Amino acid sequence: MSSEAFYEPLADGRFRSTEHTSGPWDPGSQHAGPPAALLGRALEQCEPRDGTLLARLTFEILGAVPVAEVEVEARVVRPGRSVELLEATLSAGGRPAMSARAWRLPVTTAPPAGEQEPSIARPDAADPPPHDFGYGNALECRFAVGGWNVPGPAVVWTRLRVGVVPDERPSPLQRVLAVADSGNGVSAVMPWDEWLFINPELTVHVLRPPEGEWVVLDAATRIGAAGLARSVMSDASGPVAYGAQSLLVAPRR
Predict the structure, then answer these.
(1) How far from the centroid of its chain's Cα atoms is residue 224's Cα?
(2) What is the pLDDT of residue 109?
(3) What's the confidence (pLDDT) of residue 115?
(4) Is residue 116 in a domain?
(5) Residue 51 sits in which domain range?
(6) Is 224 a member of any domain?
(7) Total number of domains constituting the chain
(8) Nearest to 27 by CA among 68, 60, 61
(9) How far apart are CA 178 and CA 195, in angstroms?
């Protein structure tokens, strides 16, 4: 794993955000993918238990996350022998900027059931982002359906070019969380240069850990009285997680 990463550990749960975290709306603010992955890492390390899975994670984006020093804390809110509720908070500049709650469940022993459709074949060439921003360059994207400048649903193979922290391979969950927040971007139905479509939250339901370094993001956006982006995340064998984002849709000033 390259020493390049989204965050550099400092001490006592503090991290320095690198340029790889910057998002498309403001170069001084992070894309929500890296902090979601960092919060997921903290939740995974919070009183870990063998034979369990973080099955549902909900992230509340309480404000812009600056490309600056951040602090992460995690705790068990509701302990239990079988089911546990965990909570983590990412703070910046003395204020909470993003929080997460996750249900930790025992891994099922039941045989797999339901449809398991294999993913569309991975294209040979990468598609660079439409804008030059840190997170966009830290994520390799290969569109099988749609494209950055093609409005509507999209299917894109994604792979992290950097780690979450240096010299540590991202876990399967961290790879999912790092790209789950991109559903509204890859399936945009509004022009980037005319409209904002920013999500104040992200919910991810995990079916199983993905295998390999690629995560396929199959996303679609609908605009009604509010906006909603829905996504299915898969590996080469089929779905691994499902995501949803409520969207603030507004004209750019």
Answers:
(1) 24
(2) 81
(3) 67
(4) no
(5) 7-107+121-251
(6) yes
(7) 1
(8) 68
(9) 24
